[in-house]
Design a protein that fits this description.
- This protein has ten helices and 23 strands.
- It is an alpha+beta fold.
- The chain folds into two domains: 368 residues, no CATH class; 52 residues.
- The chain has a five-stranded mixed sheet, with helices on one face.
- β3 and β4 form a beta hairpin.
């Protein structure tokens, strides 16, 4: 693929001990030790007219304000416009709190300042290292998780195991090689929540173990894990053991190496990127519903204060945080503003004849499966947790079923849940973006 230059770089972003870990509300305190390091990795591509950048990082996702800071600095330091930069978080639940979650710990401004500068530093280094390269893409079977939306006999939807549920059992790979044929970077995307580890140790979880395996087996190529649409997919098993996460990572790493070795040349010589913001409608509860929610959360706080096993950290972060959510929930119900929307930025990139779609949410895997069928490009890689994360984005059919992703998780992200019509709005906007990129070829 003559004409495209590529650069890669990686930086260590491991936070100090004592910062809040993100992803689980029931943790008894902040981090107590570092089990393995966290990294941010940058891939920059330039065809002489257009420059795009992709960052992957071992964090839960980038907060919207951090996305704005990084994009501004990336334009200044690396010449990458904000709409041409994708910032993906692996969604590790054993990394620092760098999102404005309720009930999941405190953000640390000092760490976040360093994180932003490190990410931009990686982009700057990758831009300075641009060299002629060839690109190849591949896919291989990979399955380290399962669909987690299990319907119980009593009709309740729970977090469990749904063996018949949709999954994306593969890994997508984009490989960049130097002119001598040696691999310089391996971008790999898979859909599975990294949620095996629930303790107080900092860890990259299975994506980190996969990265080590890939670097060992592909001559030190920079390994870049990107989280795909895993909103309803958990890694499995989930026994809390580091050995299990290592095994999951090596399974994914092996599949990634296989895909990289069998990868075929990317067609086309042009790069392009486009973003579109969609206003997703929000669901406002009745006053009675919101009053019940506030009563439940206040009762939960009252009971927790009597429980000697509950730590002061849990009281403040988890229980008081949820009372704060319920108060806002009731305020929204009383105001009755049913015209409110949630900004949702859809990003689409073209790398030759490969498309990359990135969403700022916990997308159900059907979004990924749908684009795999419907995209106008021969290969489309679909990501969640990119350029922020608004919370879960279920399919419309999931709303009547309920469950954590529909009925509970929004309490941690904001105040209100997005509406079922969001599926249609997102799909229409995404396909329109992709058609626009295809026509520019």
């Amino acid at each position: 693929m003559e004409g495209i230059r590529v650069g890669v770089a990686e930086v260590n972003i491991t936070p100090p001990v004592g910062l809040s870990l993100c992803g689980f509300g029931a943790r008894k305190g902040p981090s107590e030790f570092i089990h393995d390091d966290l990294y941010a990795r940058a891939l920059v591509l330039d065809d002489g007219e257009t420059r795009i950048g992709i960052v992957t990082a071992d964090i839960i996702s980038f907060a919207p304000d951090l996305v704005e800071r990084i994009r501004a600095l990336a334009l200044e330091k690396a010449g990458i416009p904000g709409t041409h930069l994708a910032l993906n978080g692996s969604h590790s639940h054993s990394g620092p709190t760098v999102m404005q979650f309720r009930s999941m710990g405190d953000r640390d401004p000092a760490y976040e300042d360093v994180l932003c500068r490190q990410v931009v530093g990686a982009l700057k280094m990758a831009s300075d290292r641009l060299e002629a390269a060839s690109l190849r893409t591949g896919r291989a079977p990979a399955r380290i998780g399962h669909n987690r939306r299990e319907k119980r006999k009593d009709g309740r939807m729970t977090l469990g195991h749904n063996p018949g549920g949709p999954e994306a059992p593969w890994v997508d790979v984009l490989r960049a090689d130097r002119q001598d044929g040696s691999p310089m970077g391996i971008f790999y995307a898979h859909a599975a929540h990294p949620v095996n580890l629930r303790g107080l140790a900092t860890s990259a979880e299975y994506p980190g173990y996969a990265a080590r395996f890939i670097a060992r087996n592909l001559n030190g190529a920079v390994p870049m894990f990107a989280q795909a649409c895993c909103g309803d997919i958990n890694c499995a098993p989930m026994d809390g053991q580091f050995e299990t996460s290592e095994r999951q990572g090596e399974i994914l790493g092996c599949a990634t190496v296989t895909a990289a070795l069998q990868a075929e040349s990317v067609g086309g010589k042009r790069l392009a990127s486009a973003c579109r913001k969609v206003g997703l409608p929000l669901m406002v509860p009745t006053v009675e519903e919101a009053e019940r929610a506030l009563e439940q959360q206040r009762e939960g706080l009252s009971q927790a204060r009597k429980d000697e096993r509950v730590t002061p950290y849990q009281l403040r972060v988890q229980y008081e945080g949820q009372v704060g959510w319920a108060e806002d929930y009731l305020r929204a119900a009383r105001e009755g503003d049913r015209g409110g929307t949630q900004d949702f930025e859809i990003q689409a990139m073209r790398i030759g004849d490969v498309a990359l779609v990135a969403y700022p949410g916990e997308m159900f895997v059907e979004y990924q499966l749908g684009l795999d069928r419907e995209s106008p490009f021969p290969r489309t890689i679909t990501l969640g947790y990119t350029n922020g994360c608004i919370g879960y984005v279920p399919m419309a059919a999931a709303y009547p079923e309920g469950g954590y992703e529909v009925s509970g998780a929004f309490r941690y992200y904001g105040t209100l849940m997005i509406a079922p019509d969001c599926e249609r709005l997102i799909r229409e906007a995404t396909l329109d973006l992709l058609e626009g990129l295809r026509r520019e070829a």
